[in-house]
Write a structure and sequence with these properties.
Blueprint: H1 4-21, E1 30-35, E2 40-45, H2 67-71, H3 75-78
Bound molecules: zinc ion.
C-alpha cells in the first residue's frame, strides 16, 4: 500500500489549508480513521486530557526537547 502515505498526506494538507483559510470544519478533537481496503473514512471524537503534560490545564512540558542530545545520551547516565 505504497500510496497510503499520499492519501493521508493529502488529508493533512487539506486540513492545514482549511486552518489557514479559516474555512470548513477542522478535525480538531477528532480522530480520522481511513480503511483503504474498504475505502471508508470514520471519525471519532477524542476528549482532551486535562492532565496531559503538554496541552492539559497545568502543562509541565512547555518547550521542545533537544532530541539530538536526548537520543545520543548514555543511558547509564539517565538512571542518575
Ligand atoms: Zn495533550
Amino acid at each position: 500500500m505504497g500510496v497510503l502515505p499520499g492519501t493521508i498526506g493529502l488529508v493533512q494538507a487539506t486540513e492545514t489549508v482549511k486552518m489557514i483559510l479559516g474555512q470548513g470544519i477542522p478535525l480538531v478533537g477528532k480522530l480520522l480513521m481511513y480503511d483503504a481496503l474498504s475505502t471508508s473514512f470514520n471519525t471519532f471524537k477524542v476528549r482532551r486530557d486535562t492532565n496531559c503534560p503538554v496541552c492539559g490545564d497545568n502543562p509541565t512540558i512547555t518547550e521542545l526537547i533537544d532530541y539530538q542530545a536526548f537520543c545520543s545520551m548514555d543511558h547509564s547516565e539517565a538512571a542518575d
